[in-house]
Amino acid sequence: MKKDVTRWYSQRLEQEMPLVRWGHFGTPVLLFPTAGGDAEEVERFHLIRVLEPLIDEGRIKVYSTDSVAGRTWVSGDHSAEFCSRVQNLFDAFIYEEVTPAIRTDCDSQDIEIIATGASIGAFNAVAAVCRHPDAYRMAIGMSGTYDLSKYLEGRMFPDFYFSSPIHYLPDLDGPQLERLRTRFILLPTGEGRYEDIGESWRLARILGAKGVPNRVDPWGADWHHDWETWREMLPKYLAEFA
Predict the structure, then answer these.
(1) Is the pTM of this model over 0.90?
(2) Is 144 exposed, middle or buried (0-12, 13-18, 19+ CB in 10 A)?
């Protein structure tokens, strides 16, 4: 499938960043890569291929960018404080740079976006909706890894706290929470190899306690933490919600 690639230099992340688009019409979907993935990872692992019917029908158009923060966390080359700072900057990049680019491409400055991804991509999708419910209307977090505090070396940093939904949501109040209560967080996950459905249930309990609509969809022990699972999940849910 033909794709369009836009690049610009992000002052926040101090590097050139890509935004890749597949499709021309429909609901905009921001698809986050896994931890170390780049903007075209989702195409190489055939996630775009299984979404082609929805793209060809003009129901969705899909965007993706590099997983800068995820790559920083898993590299093992940086301090926890630095990784936390990059995570917060990545969130700002998504909201202040990627979101306006998507809306301009859609010729609508208030169109609402679906955020999705798997593993740490699910973390970023949920974070986008929770922190920016003015722009993102739902998250589809597949096989989510929602607690990144294992990387913090036993410490907590403000940059991390305000980037991590399971940490800041219990204290959230005011207009952001009121808007978030009009959004929806969907948490499908397998229960096979390398899956931890407990992370999804933990997030769901926190969301539920704050009155945020959400649902955990367990797929069972035959579905593993792998692209085969996500290739089955994402077309199903986007066909339902897009």
Answers:
(1) yes
(2) buried
For residue 202, give both structure tokens.
């933990």
- Total domains, the chain: 1
| Residue span of the structural domain in which 86 resides | 4-241
- End-to-end CA separation in angstroms for the chain: 20
pLDDT in tens, the chain (242 residues): 899 999 999 999 999 999 999 999 999 999 999 998 999 999 999 999 999 999 999 999 999 999 999 999 988 889 999 999 999 999 999 999 999 999 999 999 999 999 999 999 999 999 999 999 999 999 999 999 999 998 898 899 999 999 999 999 999 999 999 999 999 999 999 999 999 999 999 999 999 999 999 999 999 999 999 999 999 999 999 999 99
Burial string for 2-18 (b: 16+ CB within 10 Å, else e) reads eeeeeeeebebbeeebe
Angle at 55 between CA 52 and CA 57, to 5 degrees: 110
Structure-token pair, residue 240: 């339902």
Angle between helices 227-241 and 47-56 (to 10 degrees): 20
Q: What is the CATH number of the domain that holds 224?
A: 3.40.50.1820
Q: How many residues does the chain have?
A: 242
